[in-house]
């Protein structure tokens, strides 16, 4: 089992944090995460990012008893597609 989530690094989730009640506290005031560097399209605290931003941590902590890892990855990839779709319409 791969422990890595296949993130593309597009930053759409970091630009759309108001879509989730779990990440609203990261809003810098415009719907973008306070830790996201838009110029470089990177998380400035990636190595120490909040747990809610780490798919593997969230799986291990809250979801491993409900889903297997491949299914959880698929669910999160579907969410990514939806976020990218919403973000691309803005």
Give me a quick take on this structure.
This protein has helices at residues 12-15, 55-63, 69-89; strands at 36-37, 42-43. With 90 residues, the chain is mostly helical.
Characterise this structure.
38% of the residues lie in helices and 4% in strands. It is mainly alpha-helical and 90 residues long. The chain has one domain (12-89). The chain has a two-stranded antiparallel ribbon. Strand 1 and strand 2 form a beta hairpin. The N and C termini lie far apart (36 Å).
The gross shape turns out to be: globular
In the predicted model, the low-confidence regions spanning at least 5 consecutive residues are none
Mean residue pLDDT: 91
Run of helices and strands? HEEHH
Beta fraction: under 5%
Count of all domains: 1
Distance, first to last CA: 36 Å
Question: What is the percent of helical residues?
Answer: 25-40%
Name the structural class.
mainly alpha
Q: What's the count of strands?
A: 2
Biggest pleated sheet: 2 strands, antiparallel
In spatial order, strands of the major sheet run 1-2
Number of helices: 3
| Cα-based radius of gyration, to the nearest Å | 13 Å
List the helices and strands and how they pair.
Elements: H1 12-15, E1 36-37, E2 42-43, H2 55-63, H3 69-89
Antiparallel strand pairs: 1-2
Throw out a few tags for this protein.
3 helices; 90 residues; single chain; mainly alpha
């Amino acid at each position: 089992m791969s422990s890595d989530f296949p993130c593309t690094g597009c930053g759409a989730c970091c630009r759309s944090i108001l879509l989730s009640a779990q990440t609203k506290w990261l809003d810098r005031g415009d719907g973008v995460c306070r830790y996201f560097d838009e110029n470089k399209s990177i998380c400035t605290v990636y190595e120490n990012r909040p747990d809610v931003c780490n798919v593997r941590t969230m799986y291990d902590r809250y979801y491993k008893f409900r889903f297997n890892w491949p299914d959880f990855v698929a669910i999160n990839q579907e969410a990514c597609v939806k976020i990218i779709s919403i973000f691309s319409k803005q």
